[in-house]
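Side project, low priority. Logging it here so it doesn't get lost.
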Amino acid sequence: MAEVLSQQQIDELLGNLLSGDVDLDEIKEQSAMKKVKDYDFRSPKKFTREQLKLIDSIHDSFAKFASSQLSSLLRIPFEIEVNQIEEQQFSEFNNALNDSVMVGLLDLQKDDQSDERQQMLIEVAKPIAFFVIDKFLGGSGDNLQNRDSEFTDIEISLMEYFFNQLITAIKNSWINFFTVNPYLTQIETNSRMLQSIAPGETVIIVVLQITVNNTVGTVNICLPKSTLDAIFKVFESKHPKPSRSNAASEEKAQIRKKIIMEKLNDSPLNVKGLLGQTEITLQELLNLEAGDIIPLNTAVNENKVVVHIEDIPWFYGAIGTKNNKYAIKIVEQY
Protein backbone atom coordinates (compact mmCIF):
# COMPACT_ATOMS: atom_id res chain seq x y z
CA MET A 1 0.00 0.00 0.00
CA ALA A 2 1.11 3.54 -0.72
CA GLU A 3 2.72 5.42 2.13
CA VAL A 4 0.61 8.26 3.53
CA LEU A 5 2.62 11.44 4.20
CA SER A 6 2.08 13.42 7.38
CA GLN A 7 1.40 17.15 7.26
CA GLN A 8 4.98 17.84 8.41
CA GLN A 9 6.42 15.74 5.58
CA ILE A 10 4.20 17.52 3.06
CA ASP A 11 5.36 20.92 4.34
CA GLU A 12 9.03 19.86 4.11
CA LEU A 13 8.53 18.59 0.54
CA LEU A 14 6.86 21.83 -0.56
CA GLY A 15 9.63 23.85 1.14
CA ASN A 16 12.34 21.91 -0.70
CA LEU A 17 10.54 22.43 -4.03
CA LEU A 18 10.27 26.19 -3.48
CA SER A 19 13.91 26.50 -2.41
CA GLY A 20 15.17 24.55 -5.41
CA ASP A 21 16.76 21.76 -3.36
CA VAL A 22 14.65 19.20 -5.20
CA ASP A 23 14.83 18.76 -8.98
CA LEU A 24 11.25 18.57 -10.27
CA ASP A 25 12.33 17.09 -13.62
CA GLU A 26 14.16 14.29 -11.81
CA ILE A 27 11.03 13.51 -9.78
CA LYS A 28 8.95 13.36 -12.98
CA GLU A 29 11.51 11.05 -14.60
CA GLN A 30 11.50 8.72 -11.59
CA SER A 31 7.70 8.72 -11.54
CA ALA A 32 7.59 7.75 -15.23
CA MET A 33 9.92 4.80 -14.67
CA LYS A 34 8.38 1.34 -14.36
CA LYS A 35 7.93 0.42 -10.71
CA VAL A 36 9.42 -2.94 -9.71
CA LYS A 37 8.40 -4.54 -6.44
CA ASP A 38 10.70 -7.00 -4.69
CA TYR A 39 9.25 -10.51 -4.32
CA ASP A 40 10.34 -12.78 -1.50
CA PHE A 41 10.46 -16.34 -2.87
CA ARG A 42 11.08 -17.72 0.64
CA SER A 43 7.59 -16.63 1.70
CA PRO A 44 5.40 -16.54 -1.43
CA LYS A 45 1.99 -14.92 -1.38
CA LYS A 46 -0.80 -17.33 -0.49
CA PHE A 47 -3.84 -15.19 -1.33
CA THR A 48 -5.04 -13.91 -4.70
CA ARG A 49 -5.96 -10.31 -5.43
CA GLU A 50 -9.65 -11.28 -5.62
CA GLN A 51 -9.50 -12.82 -2.15
CA LEU A 52 -7.87 -9.70 -0.71
CA LYS A 53 -10.58 -7.57 -2.34
CA LEU A 54 -13.19 -9.76 -0.68
CA ILE A 55 -11.53 -9.28 2.73
CA ASP A 56 -11.36 -5.53 2.09
CA SER A 57 -15.07 -5.42 1.21
CA ILE A 58 -16.01 -7.38 4.35
CA HIS A 59 -14.03 -5.14 6.67
CA ASP A 60 -15.22 -1.98 4.97
CA SER A 61 -18.72 -3.09 5.99
CA PHE A 62 -17.38 -4.03 9.43
CA ALA A 63 -15.98 -0.50 9.87
CA LYS A 64 -19.41 0.98 9.18
CA PHE A 65 -21.27 -1.40 11.49
CA ALA A 66 -18.67 -1.04 14.27
CA SER A 67 -18.74 2.76 13.99
CA SER A 68 -22.52 2.77 14.39
CA GLN A 69 -22.41 0.21 17.21
CA LEU A 70 -19.77 2.05 19.27
CA SER A 71 -21.31 5.46 18.65
CA SER A 72 -24.66 4.32 20.02
CA LEU A 73 -22.97 2.48 22.91
CA LEU A 74 -20.81 5.36 24.19
CA ARG A 75 -22.94 8.27 22.89
CA ILE A 76 -20.02 9.76 21.02
CA PRO A 77 -19.21 9.62 17.27
CA PHE A 78 -16.60 7.05 16.21
CA GLU A 79 -14.85 7.30 12.84
CA ILE A 80 -13.53 3.94 11.65
CA GLU A 81 -11.96 3.22 8.26
CA VAL A 82 -9.85 0.47 6.70
CA ASN A 83 -6.29 1.78 6.57
CA GLN A 84 -4.32 -1.22 5.28
CA ILE A 85 -4.58 -4.92 4.41
CA GLU A 86 -1.34 -6.87 4.45
CA GLU A 87 -0.28 -10.49 4.11
CA GLN A 88 2.58 -11.64 6.35
CA GLN A 89 3.67 -14.38 8.70
CA PHE A 90 2.20 -14.45 12.19
CA SER A 91 5.68 -14.20 13.74
CA GLU A 92 6.18 -10.81 12.03
CA PHE A 93 2.86 -9.55 13.36
CA ASN A 94 3.54 -10.85 16.87
CA ASN A 95 7.08 -9.42 17.00
CA ALA A 96 5.73 -5.98 16.07
CA LEU A 97 3.44 -5.95 19.13
CA ASN A 98 4.46 -4.51 22.48
CA ASP A 99 4.74 -6.84 25.46
CA SER A 100 1.62 -5.30 27.02
CA VAL A 101 -1.34 -5.47 24.63
CA MET A 102 -5.10 -5.83 24.57
CA VAL A 103 -5.97 -8.74 22.29
CA GLY A 104 -9.29 -10.54 22.01
CA LEU A 105 -9.22 -14.12 20.70
CA LEU A 106 -12.38 -15.08 18.82
CA ASP A 107 -13.67 -18.28 17.26
CA LEU A 108 -15.84 -17.66 14.20
CA GLN A 109 -17.98 -20.82 14.56
CA LYS A 110 -19.42 -21.40 18.02
CA ASP A 111 -21.37 -24.56 17.13
CA ASP A 112 -18.71 -26.09 14.87
CA GLN A 113 -17.96 -29.66 15.98
CA SER A 114 -14.73 -30.01 13.98
CA ASP A 115 -11.35 -30.07 15.68
CA GLU A 116 -9.98 -27.15 13.64
CA ARG A 117 -10.79 -23.76 15.15
CA GLN A 118 -11.57 -20.82 12.90
CA GLN A 119 -9.72 -18.13 14.83
CA MET A 120 -9.63 -14.36 14.65
CA LEU A 121 -7.45 -12.02 16.71
CA ILE A 122 -8.45 -8.42 17.40
CA GLU A 123 -5.71 -6.19 18.84
CA VAL A 124 -6.91 -2.83 20.19
CA ALA A 125 -4.34 -0.06 20.59
CA LYS A 126 -3.96 1.21 24.15
CA PRO A 127 -5.20 4.78 23.45
CA ILE A 128 -8.49 3.38 22.14
CA ALA A 129 -8.74 0.76 24.90
CA PHE A 130 -8.19 3.26 27.71
CA PHE A 131 -10.57 5.75 26.07
CA VAL A 132 -13.33 3.12 25.96
CA ILE A 133 -12.64 2.06 29.57
CA ASP A 134 -12.72 5.65 30.78
CA LYS A 135 -16.03 6.28 28.99
CA PHE A 136 -17.52 3.10 30.49
CA LEU A 137 -16.61 4.43 33.95
CA GLY A 138 -18.20 7.82 33.29
CA GLY A 139 -15.06 9.77 32.38
CA SER A 140 -14.42 12.10 29.47
CA GLY A 141 -11.74 9.95 27.82
CA ASP A 142 -9.40 12.93 27.39
CA ASN A 143 -5.62 13.02 27.98
CA LEU A 144 -5.22 9.24 27.60
CA GLN A 145 -3.29 9.23 24.30
CA ASN A 146 0.08 8.56 25.95
CA ARG A 147 -1.05 6.31 28.81
CA ASP A 148 0.95 3.04 28.82
CA SER A 149 0.10 1.23 32.04
CA GLU A 150 -0.84 -2.42 32.56
CA PHE A 151 -4.49 -3.45 32.43
CA THR A 152 -6.22 -4.30 35.70
CA ASP A 153 -8.75 -7.10 36.14
CA ILE A 154 -11.63 -4.62 36.15
CA GLU A 155 -10.39 -2.99 32.95
CA ILE A 156 -10.08 -6.43 31.31
CA SER A 157 -13.70 -7.19 32.29
CA LEU A 158 -14.84 -3.92 30.71
CA MET A 159 -12.89 -4.72 27.52
CA GLU A 160 -14.58 -8.14 27.44
CA TYR A 161 -17.90 -6.30 27.17
CA PHE A 162 -16.36 -4.11 24.43
CA PHE A 163 -15.26 -7.15 22.38
CA ASN A 164 -18.70 -8.71 22.72
CA GLN A 165 -20.17 -5.54 21.24
CA LEU A 166 -17.88 -5.91 18.21
CA ILE A 167 -19.17 -9.46 17.65
CA THR A 168 -22.50 -8.03 16.46
CA ALA A 169 -20.68 -5.90 13.88
CA ILE A 170 -18.67 -8.97 12.75
CA LYS A 171 -21.85 -10.99 12.19
CA ASN A 172 -23.54 -8.20 10.22
CA SER A 173 -20.50 -7.55 8.00
CA TRP A 174 -19.87 -11.21 7.14
CA ILE A 175 -23.48 -12.34 6.65
CA ASN A 176 -23.63 -11.21 2.99
CA PHE A 177 -20.79 -13.59 2.13
CA PHE A 178 -21.11 -16.49 4.60
CA THR A 179 -22.63 -17.07 7.99
CA VAL A 180 -20.33 -16.85 11.01
CA ASN A 181 -21.21 -17.30 14.66
CA PRO A 182 -18.26 -15.73 16.51
CA TYR A 183 -17.70 -15.80 20.23
CA LEU A 184 -14.96 -14.50 22.51
CA THR A 185 -12.75 -17.30 23.84
CA GLN A 186 -10.31 -15.23 25.91
CA ILE A 187 -8.54 -11.89 26.35
CA GLU A 188 -4.74 -11.78 26.35
CA THR A 189 -2.68 -8.85 27.64
CA ASN A 190 0.76 -10.38 27.02
CA SER A 191 1.75 -10.65 23.36
CA ARG A 192 4.34 -13.35 24.12
CA MET A 193 1.51 -15.65 25.24
CA LEU A 194 -0.21 -15.60 21.84
CA GLN A 195 0.61 -19.15 20.81
CA SER A 196 -2.68 -20.39 19.35
CA ILE A 197 -1.35 -19.65 15.83
CA ALA A 198 1.87 -21.18 14.52
CA PRO A 199 4.67 -18.59 14.08
CA GLY A 200 5.23 -19.55 10.44
CA GLU A 201 1.57 -19.51 9.43
CA THR A 202 0.51 -16.91 6.87
CA VAL A 203 -2.03 -14.38 8.15
CA ILE A 204 -3.97 -11.42 6.80
CA ILE A 205 -3.66 -8.26 8.90
CA VAL A 206 -6.46 -5.71 8.52
CA VAL A 207 -5.55 -2.34 10.04
CA LEU A 208 -8.49 -0.15 11.05
CA GLN A 209 -7.92 3.45 12.11
CA ILE A 210 -10.26 4.79 14.79
CA THR A 211 -10.71 8.48 15.50
CA VAL A 212 -12.82 9.60 18.45
CA ASN A 213 -12.62 13.11 19.91
CA ASN A 214 -8.87 13.87 20.03
CA THR A 215 -7.86 10.21 20.36
CA VAL A 216 -6.49 8.33 17.37
CA GLY A 217 -5.55 4.66 17.40
CA THR A 218 -5.71 1.43 15.46
CA VAL A 219 -7.45 -1.90 15.69
CA ASN A 220 -5.59 -4.78 14.04
CA ILE A 221 -7.58 -7.82 12.93
CA CYS A 222 -5.50 -10.97 12.36
CA LEU A 223 -6.98 -13.76 10.21
CA PRO A 224 -4.91 -16.97 9.88
CA LYS A 225 -4.67 -18.82 6.57
CA SER A 226 -6.33 -21.93 8.04
CA THR A 227 -9.40 -19.86 8.91
CA LEU A 228 -9.54 -18.12 5.55
CA ASP A 229 -9.08 -21.37 3.59
CA ALA A 230 -12.17 -22.83 5.25
CA ILE A 231 -14.12 -19.62 4.63
CA PHE A 232 -13.07 -19.27 0.98
CA LYS A 233 -13.97 -22.93 0.37
CA VAL A 234 -17.53 -22.30 1.57
CA PHE A 235 -17.73 -19.03 -0.37
CA GLU A 236 -16.57 -20.59 -3.66
CA SER A 237 -19.08 -23.43 -3.30
CA LYS A 238 -21.92 -20.92 -2.87
CA HIS A 239 -20.65 -18.48 -5.50
CA PRO A 240 -18.96 -20.51 -8.28
CA LYS A 241 -17.18 -18.66 -11.03
CA PRO A 242 -19.25 -18.33 -14.23
CA SER A 243 -18.40 -20.91 -16.89
CA ARG A 244 -16.94 -19.81 -20.20
CA SER A 245 -19.14 -21.98 -22.42
CA ASN A 246 -20.32 -19.16 -24.67
CA ALA A 247 -19.83 -19.10 -28.42
CA ALA A 248 -16.81 -16.78 -28.33
CA SER A 249 -14.87 -18.95 -25.91
CA GLU A 250 -15.80 -22.12 -27.88
CA GLU A 251 -14.48 -20.54 -31.06
CA LYS A 252 -11.23 -19.56 -29.34
CA ALA A 253 -10.88 -23.10 -28.01
CA GLN A 254 -11.30 -24.56 -31.51
CA ILE A 255 -8.71 -22.18 -32.95
CA ARG A 256 -6.29 -23.04 -30.17
CA LYS A 257 -6.88 -26.77 -30.75
CA LYS A 258 -6.25 -26.37 -34.48
CA ILE A 259 -2.95 -24.55 -33.87
CA ILE A 260 -1.81 -27.26 -31.45
CA MET A 261 -2.69 -30.05 -33.90
CA GLU A 262 -0.84 -28.28 -36.74
CA LYS A 263 2.29 -28.20 -34.59
CA LEU A 264 1.87 -31.82 -33.55
CA ASN A 265 1.32 -33.08 -37.13
CA ASP A 266 5.03 -32.66 -37.91
CA SER A 267 6.17 -34.50 -34.77
CA PRO A 268 8.17 -37.71 -35.53
CA LEU A 269 6.79 -40.91 -33.97
CA ASN A 270 8.41 -44.30 -33.45
CA VAL A 271 6.24 -47.05 -35.00
CA LYS A 272 7.06 -50.77 -34.69
CA GLY A 273 5.29 -54.06 -35.27
CA LEU A 274 5.68 -56.74 -32.61
CA LEU A 275 5.52 -60.20 -34.18
CA GLY A 276 5.49 -61.95 -30.82
CA GLN A 277 7.35 -62.36 -27.57
CA THR A 278 8.65 -65.01 -25.21
CA GLU A 279 10.68 -65.46 -22.04
CA ILE A 280 14.04 -67.19 -21.70
CA THR A 281 16.52 -67.56 -18.88
CA LEU A 282 19.83 -65.80 -18.74
CA GLN A 283 21.59 -69.18 -19.17
CA GLU A 284 19.63 -69.84 -22.36
CA LEU A 285 20.53 -66.38 -23.66
CA LEU A 286 24.22 -66.98 -23.05
CA ASN A 287 24.05 -70.34 -24.88
CA LEU A 288 22.35 -68.97 -28.01
CA GLU A 289 24.18 -69.71 -31.28
CA ALA A 290 23.58 -69.12 -34.97
CA GLY A 291 20.82 -71.43 -36.24
CA ASP A 292 18.98 -71.69 -32.91
CA ILE A 293 15.21 -71.30 -33.05
CA ILE A 294 13.26 -69.18 -30.56
CA PRO A 295 9.53 -70.04 -30.43
CA LEU A 296 7.17 -67.08 -29.86
CA ASN A 297 3.76 -66.93 -28.19
CA THR A 298 2.02 -66.10 -31.50
CA ALA A 299 0.25 -68.93 -33.35
CA VAL A 300 1.11 -69.49 -37.04
CA ASN A 301 -2.49 -69.18 -38.22
CA GLU A 302 -3.05 -65.85 -36.48
CA ASN A 303 -0.90 -63.85 -38.94
CA LYS A 304 -1.39 -60.82 -36.73
CA VAL A 305 1.12 -58.41 -35.22
CA VAL A 306 0.60 -55.65 -32.70
CA VAL A 307 1.57 -52.19 -33.97
CA HIS A 308 3.08 -50.00 -31.24
CA ILE A 309 3.11 -46.19 -31.43
CA GLU A 310 5.81 -44.87 -29.08
CA ASP A 311 5.72 -48.21 -27.17
CA ILE A 312 1.93 -48.02 -26.76
CA PRO A 313 -0.11 -50.81 -28.49
CA TRP A 314 -2.39 -49.05 -30.95
CA PHE A 315 -3.39 -51.35 -33.89
CA TYR A 316 -3.51 -54.97 -35.05
CA GLY A 317 -1.79 -55.55 -38.40
CA ALA A 318 -1.12 -58.30 -40.95
CA ILE A 319 2.37 -59.03 -42.32
CA GLY A 320 2.88 -58.71 -46.05
CA THR A 321 5.17 -57.21 -48.69
CA LYS A 322 5.10 -54.04 -50.76
CA ASN A 323 7.69 -52.99 -53.36
CA ASN A 324 9.89 -55.94 -52.35
CA LYS A 325 9.89 -54.84 -48.69
CA TYR A 326 8.20 -56.25 -45.64
CA ALA A 327 5.09 -54.24 -44.73
CA ILE A 328 2.29 -54.30 -42.15
CA LYS A 329 -1.31 -53.70 -43.13
CA ILE A 330 -3.47 -52.10 -40.43
CA VAL A 331 -6.38 -54.44 -39.75
CA GLU A 332 -8.20 -53.08 -36.68
CA GLN A 333 -7.87 -50.98 -33.56
CA TYR A 334 -6.03 -52.61 -30.70
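Brief comment: The CA atoms of residues 2 and 160 lie 34 Å apart.
Revisit when time allows.
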